[in-house]
């Protein structure tokens, strides 16, 4: 390994790289990415292959002849095992096998006889992007790395799309810069030896959900053990969330079985009806070797805290900024206690439970069974009979549903049963979005609908996969924020192997009105005490959100003063300032501000990051023209960038 400059990466757990083909022209382009603090890993030819930031313990590499493999992230593979994989490799497609079997969460990068492959995770927690620079295909694990090298301005159309709440598949996967392409989760970027053949190749598909709960629970248990072991096997001190919920409690008990010393962290809720602390203390009594830290509830930052000071380098807007202060607040204290990694139970809601939308198909395949279950859901969620029957009768394909919703962007949200049994929550826009921005978003929806395919033909599996991806898009940015704060985060429930094990269990046994997360309970029985598995609810934290609106209304008002979105003509700044003065306005409790705030905060952060360039003016002010270096992304023929060999997503 050679280094272009002395290593001075942004922090532990924040590895990121740009990837170059083995070409003379690529070596020239790579020089634009070599900055102070970057490292370089070469091809066997000596030309640069990877340029970026990483610590020695964040990457493992192995070379065998003309093959070089690299894993970046969390895994259980050492150099010798990776070398064996490299020595056996004869075709770049053979990497599908380790990609589908290795535990952990990582980027897998390979160069073989001039061929290049780069992939992230099926979950979407680790992504790959690519573009063309002077005819050279360049990939990266962050979209902003490519955009910065090109001097690109954010795409205003994509900003308008991100004002939708929520942003439906596939629009949310598009990068924020025109000319940068995202590789869909579950696909790999493959570049031919001439650098001209660029395609996406699918390596992952969701499993068939055909295992019984009894048959599937042992596999869920095994994969969760492996996922936590991958983070704790090195020992030292790790910290864990212990909210009292089933997900974080599971992670704590698994970590307690490891060689690592464990510090469990509990934030009690402000709501007197919140029972998190009681459940957490009950779990802690079964963990005598774990240090249990209980924080002062009133010291916990509220939702909307610190929005004006966020300057994280993010490659897309994220609603995670609303809870950024809450997520990061205790990490310095965990670092003082020696924690090298913070484990969370995030993702358990998305994989151990599942969407009720599976009952749309079950009602046709097993009508009597589905009828009994749906009666329970109606009682549980107060679904009206007429709405339930209407949702079950709606058999529109995904593209038609998306196109129809484009005509209803300003309508009130439909009843929960329509969302629960349908393709998902339909996108909406709000009164402060300008007519021009609304037209742009509506046009983008209709254009996407013309060719959009669901993530799975079964709307239940589609809903599960979309929710997993939506979650990982937030966690991906939180992970970057936490790494910058000094204690990286990890969410074992979002490892691909764990997701697969959960999705393989029959949906009617994963989601039922008669039991709460029965799959997780069955998988953890014997590891987590039965008394801790009896919880049947979770805290909502609605008081923290409502209090946050009231306490931080001045910050929200300031956010819309000289708003970047308003200057771009996407929102009415005065309407938002009026709304900030009415934090108890109807509808705000439904988080309808989140998408708009996330875009505004992202643009503010981008302005802070790029302010020193162009005489104090951020590049994205410049009529969408690139700034230095004066390089525009090449427009490749559609056939060269198509997902050859892919089944779509």
Topology:
Elements: E1 16-19, H1 24-30, E2 39-42, E3 48-53, E4 59-64, E5 67-74, H2 79-88, H3 96-101, E6 105-112, E7 115-119, E8 128-133, E9 136-140, H4 143-150, H5 156-162, E10 181-183, E11 187-191, E12 198-202, H6 213-232, E13 237-241, H7 246-256, E14 261-266, H8 276-284, E15 291-294, H9 324-328, H10 331-336, E16 339-343, H11 348-351, H12 358-365, H13 367-381, H14 385-393, H15 398-405, H16 416-420, H17 435-449, H18 459-485, E17 489-490, H19 496-503, H20 507-510, H21 518-524, H22 542-551, H23 553-559, H24 564-567, H25 573-580, H26 594-610
Parallel strand pairs: 13-14, 13-16, 14-15, 16-17
Antiparallel strand pairs: 1-3, 1-9, 2-3, 4-5, 5-6, 6-7, 7-11, 8-9, 8-10, 11-12
Helix pairs in contact: 5-17, 6-19, 6-21, 12-13, 15-17, 23-25
Biased composition (Low complexity): 635-649
EC number: 6.3.5.4
GO molecular function, one term: asparagine synthase (glutamine-hydrolyzing) activity
Textual characterization of the structure:
By secondary structure, this protein is of the alpha+beta class. Among the domains are: 16-153 and 178-205 and 629-640, Aminohydrolase, N-terminal nucleophile (Ntn) domain (Glutamine Phosphoribosylpyrophosphate, subunit 1, domain 1, 4-Layer Sandwich); 551-608, no CATH class. Helices cover 38% and strands 13% of the residues. It has 26 helices and 17 strands. The strands form three sheets. Strands 2-3-1-9-8-10 form a six-stranded antiparallel sheet. It has a six-stranded antiparallel sheet with strand order 4-5-6-7-11-12. Strands 15-14-13-16-17 form a five-stranded parallel sheet. A hairpin with a 6-residue loop joins strand 11 (187-191) and strand 12 (198-202). The longest helix is centred in the last third of the chain and has 27 residues, at 459-485. The protein is globular and about 65 Å long. The model is unreliable at 1-9 and 612-649 (pLDDT under 50).
